[in-house]
């Protein structure tokens, strides 16, 4: 059997609420783009219906017990059959435009990258400024957001995948590695000129504005904070789960 054109890897921990819409959007995008795509959902110890939902949607489900997002992403990549990988968050909705843009880039001189990001709701002033700043920073320094991160499988694996010594910010470290190596070989790692991919703004419901600001401040002042689970709580807690 010929390998799929693209392997989409979705890390998921207790995502029964968000995963159905994500998989539905992905299925529509696959149909409209006419690409051969395999979907791998990496269940990170969920105690809800995440795995069952993924299986019913036709995704391949694998399990990774370690609660470290870099490890979860890498677990999916280890099993992917395509030479091209797309890491997609379980609350992020892609379109056929995104899939086709990834295909065209990787078929050219790109080794990977990301796309601009938008939220699924109107944003208050501070979060809106933060998102605009991220999109500008992302494009200027070729930093792909973790919610939509595409890469050639051979390059991903040659660098050891996402750095597993951190609990958060693994996409920043991996972006830097890939960008530096790509430039040395006259290739590209960057941000595609597409419409933004829409991801959930649910953390605005979960945490107060001051908590968002505190997280930004901690990671700006202490760039190594992602090495510690306690300081990376923002990515591992949610209402009813600790």
From TrEMBL:
<dbReference type="Pfam" id="PF00535">
    <property type="entry name" value="Glycos_transf_2"/>
</dbReference>
<keyword id="KW-0812">Transmembrane</keyword>
<keyword id="KW-1003">Cell membrane</keyword>
<protein>
    <submittedName>
        <fullName>Glycosyl transferase family 2</fullName>
    </submittedName>
</protein>
<dbReference type="InterPro" id="IPR029044">
    <property type="entry name" value="Nucleotide-diphossugar_trans"/>
</dbReference>
<keyword id="KW-0472">Membrane</keyword>
<keyword id="KW-1133">Transmembrane helix</keyword>
<dbReference type="GO" id="GO:0016757">
    <property type="term" value="F:glycosyltransferase activity"/>
</dbReference>
<feature type="transmembrane region" description="Helical">
    <location>
        <begin position="206"/>
        <end position="225"/>
    </location>
</feature>
<dbReference type="InterPro" id="IPR001173">
    <property type="entry name" value="Glyco_trans_2-like"/>
</dbReference>
<feature type="domain" description="Glycosyltransferase 2-like">
    <location>
        <begin position="7"/>
        <end position="108"/>
    </location>
</feature>
<dbReference type="GO" id="GO:0005886">
    <property type="term" value="C:plasma membrane"/>
</dbReference>
<keyword id="KW-0808">Transferase</keyword>
<keyword id="KW-0328">Glycosyltransferase</keyword>
